[in-house]
Amino acid sequence: MAEAHQAVAFQFTVTPEGIKLQLSREVLKHIYLSGVTTWRKRAIQFKNGILTEVYPASPSSWLFMVIAIMSSMYARVDPSMGMIDSIKKVLPVSDYLTVQTQTVLSAILFATALWLSLILLLRYTLKALLSYHGWIFEPHGKMSASTKLWMSLVKMFSGRRPLLYSFQAALPRLPVPNIDDTIQRYLESVRPLLDDDQYKQMEIVATEFKKDQAPKLQKYLLVKSWWANNYVSDWWEEYIYLKGRGPIMVNSNFYTMDMLYTIPTHRQAARAGNVVHAILQYRRKLERGEHFSVILALGVVPMCSYQYERMFNTTRIPGLETDYIQHLRNRKHLVVYHQGRFFKVWLYYGGRHLLPSELEQQFQRILNDTTEPQPGELKLASLTAGNRVPWAKARQKYFNDGVNKMSLDVIETAAFFLTLDNEVHGYDPERPRTMDLYAKSLLHGTCYDRWFDKSFNLIVYKNGKIGVNTEHSWADAPIIGHMWEVSKDHVFHLGYTEEGHCKGDINKGLTFPSRLQWDIPKACQEIIEGSYAIAKELADDVDFYCCVFDEFGKGLIKKSRTSPDAFIQIALQLAHFRDKGEFCLTYESSMTRMFREGRTETVRSCTIESTAFVRSMEDENEQRLALFRRSAEKHQNMYRLAMTGAGIDRHLFCLYIVSKLLDIESPFLKQVLSEPWRLSTSQTPQHQLNLVDTQKFPKYVGAGGGFGPVADDGYGVSYNVVGENLITFHISSKYSSPETDSHRFGQNIRQAMLDIKALFNQKQKAN
Question: Predominant location of this chain (predicted)?
């Protein structure tokens, strides 16, 4: 009852003597503190917004400009060449606006206009400098004089300590590649996959497309590239993600694991308390724009930060024909799922974030709750795991009003979604397959204990292990990886007591988490069961194998003067050939965030050079090492082309979209877009900021993350290069395919890595 009384700020009673008003000082204090926090937050956002808008200049430079102009005028020097006098003539003369005041005001207006012009000049100069990509094509360890000069100029124009969004207006736009270059690179990429007759036919179709349809389609793309911030990203989000009508669980969402070797506490509520508090601290800095800009290479190349904006308070909303992304601001609650019940937890108390000990207290209350799920509540979240159309129809019919709408709104407007899972997961070196179960749990769980539409789900297991399941449409893996890396640092700066609890005291004034209420009729429960059946069939078909490869890592690979990514990709080609006896179209995800609103591009890793090397390994050709070098150089060059906007697949994808909008049938584009990616790969970026010295703290390395198979008869492979001596592989496929076996492929990858290493050992012995 004490909590109920404190929830009311005032009470009044009508008596014959009048109205008696009773105020609750405690609640009024909380209201006051909340207001102070809100206005403080707005002030910081305003300040950082100004810093971002005037970047690369600073607000103080405006004052310097005004003083310089005023000083020159007092010295009877007119730097405006008559413009100040022209401004003064426009200003009216009155008792309040004397001639002297007119002069001062005119000088200030001129100084401001000059200052804004200089900002634009600096910004476009920086944009021109960032459009230079010659540095990325230079040999490793060597730097030309022109690149050194370029670096100096970028540093000079970048200013000091740029914030997360400072570079946005200065980033160049993604260029539209030349049609001839794209088609030539495409034909080169499919050559090792086609026989002579198939390749000649493809050349004919490509030539006809280049001559007849491509010029018209290219013109529309060029117009869009001039008009939009990015000619790819909005179509990519809409057509690849939001228009998909199949399940997003497994097919789209991806996961990220906890630290590989250690669990800082085995108390589930305590681990959740510290992690949630760390994430809230990250969100506060993100909303205020206080994170520093992410710099890629050489300490000067900034990355686009556009995707960070929708990390929190974001939900994918189902539609009949297409979904849409709902993003809100200033959400102050969290939704927690435990044993079939949904709970709402307020994240603020007295105008501040709940402390880790207070969050632990709230989560422990949920764990201690023994109430049963309401009818239809247990598997409700499976609606987000099944097909999109049934979910969209059910949402319109059964969740459009009343208590169901109120509860659904609480979920969809929450900062993010937390699952307190009853299972125990993690990595046990004595039982390596435990990682496989851990991966499957993070990817799909029970199909009803994750809200797959939320921007991300935080999962905390019974033994204190954690992980994240991320909805893919709003952002790519490096974005959630940035948050995950910062948040996991809580182990060092928050810590735990000797008993494993969060540090801090218990707050008896906190209101209990509230149960969400539902009124789900039988008809809706049948739809829920239908979605669950589809999702469970999909989840049960996923075959996962996680390989902890600790024989060597990037330290040894770099000593062989090879890119770790190129080394691994070539090993994957060798492993796949040994696994299936053939080559296949291979997808490697690269990023294009050096451009404004850039997302990803495809690197086609199966090349003429890599297939030649693989065949030489099987034939034990003496030229194996030379062929490997040639293959690695080719892969690195393709990766660089993709990063700098000269990739193949996004250009062809956009040409295809334009052709559909114009109702133009293109046999070439239809063929290109229908080709299956039977080997889909990606490197998981878990150490972007290097907050933890993995050499000093080897137990705190991340375990990486993964995703489901893209093709029914193919593999999905995610790898994480950790420190100097460790690489983790997350391999997925489908049990229903007789052609694939994730464990078998994992063993082939391990052997391929060792066989390539042996090549270099032989070279060293020979020398």
Answer: mitochondrion
Looking at 277, 291, 353, 472, which residue is catalytic?
A: 472
Summarize pLDDT for 702-753 with one digit per residue, the tens. Answer: 899 999 999 999 999 999 998 788 999 999 999 999 999 999 999 999 999 9
If residue 321 lies in a helix (H) or strand (E), which one and from where to where?
none
Determine the residue type at 240.
I
- d(CA 255, CA 584) in angstroms, rounded, equals 25
DSSP state of 343: E
Axis crossing angle, helix 624-643 with helix 742-766, rounded to the nearest 10:
120
**77: buried, middle or exposed (CB in 10 Å: 19+, 13-18, 0-12)?**
exposed
Q: pLDDT of 43-85, one tens digit each?
A: 766 666 677 777 777 788 888 888 888 888 777 777 778 788 7
pLDDT of residue 3: 39
Write out the H or E segment, with its range, that includes residue 6. helix 2-6
pLDDT at position 21: 53
C-alpha to C-alpha distances, 195 to 190, 198, 408, 714, nearest whole angstrom: 10, 5, 55, 21
In this prediction, residue 37 carries a pLDDT of 60
Backbone dihedral angles phi then psi of residue 257, each to the nearest 5 degrees: -90, 170
Residues of the chain with pLDDT under 50: 1-10
Residues 6+ apart with CB under 8 A from 725: 550, 552, 553, 555, 556
Buried b (16+ CB within 10 A) or exposed e, 297-317: eeebbbbbbbbbbbbbbbbbe
For the chain, state the CA radius of gyration: 29
The answer to whether 102 and 133 have CB atoms below 8 angstroms apart is no
The owner of tokens 């300040």 is: 47
DSSP 71: H
Does 472 qualify as catalytic in the annotation?
yes
CA-to-CA distance for 674 and 745, rounded, in angstroms? 25
Neighbours of 99 (CB within 10 A): 9
399: its two tokens:
């969740």
What's residue 42's pLDDT? Answer: 67
